[in-house]
Amino acid sequence: MQQALEPKAIEVTDLTVAYQETPVLWDVDLDVPPGVLLAIVGPNGAGKTTLIKAILGLVRPAAGRVLIYDKPYEAQRRIVGYVPQRGSVDWDFPTNVLDVVMMGRYGTLGWIRRPGKPERELAIQALEKVGMQAYTTRQISQLSGGQQQRVFLARALVQDATIYLMDEPFQGVDATTERAIVALLQELRANGKTVVVVHHDLQTVTDYFDWVMLLNIRRIASGPVNETFTPENLRATYGGRVAFMQNVN
Does residue 48 sit in helix, strand or coil? Predict the structure, then answer.
């Protein structure tokens, strides 16, 4: 008897997204198996953020579909955590660190129930994981860029999602914060979570990730890093402008 295939964590099929009739993503397919740490890389304007937003239902595709464990995102919303680009967040909103992190529990609580002691304890534990437990009462506008990024990671952690989508989590952070984020992402993967990260630093892909997608409006390639992150695929993605990648085997 044939064994049933394990469902894909994320399945993107024939996805096309256009802004003012200009395609930003064109006929993109992507299968993400459960339990991988995947980088989406490509040049500026390649559609990386748009792909994340399309998976989350934040932009409407012109064609194609996205499934999360064989179901539409709307049916799986609670198992998907999202860390947006730091630059897309209103950091002047008057709220403190602890309240921001507890927002990650609203998907479980609903918007009517107020967070209580259990949610507060989970939020503090998440802040400890990202080294921000001393900042619970600090206004988010008073934090550095790296600290703000850690708070948003903690908010995603308290959601206890199965899949995490992160848009440039290393952007504008210092080396210490970057190491902390990498350790956290790798811990999530070790715990069976699926983590998809929009990433811009080609030099660290092989160190940080085990899967990669190369994107330039179309999907160039995707799969395990050791099979996919090749000079040929990089040239196809960046139009030959990868002379600095001499150490990619």
Answer: helix
CA angle 17, 23, 29 (to 5 degrees): 55
Task: Please tell me the distance from the alpha carbon of residue 194 to that of residue 87, in angstroms, as a whole number.
Answer: 24
Give the model confidence (pLDDT) of 30-57 as tens digits: 999 999 999 999 999 999 999 999 999 9
Q: Side by side, which strands form the sheet with 10-19?
A: 22-32, 10-19, 63-68
Contact 135, 97 (CB under 8 A): yes
- Predicted TM-score (pTM) of the model is 0.88
pLDDT digits (tens, 9 = 90+) for 181-201: 999 999 999 999 999 999 999
- Contact 37/197 with Cβ under 8 angstroms? yes
**Secondary structure percentages of the chain, helix, strand, coil, to 5:** 40, 25, 35
The CA distance from 181 to 54, in Å, is 24
Cα 11 from Cα 70, distance rounded (Å): 8
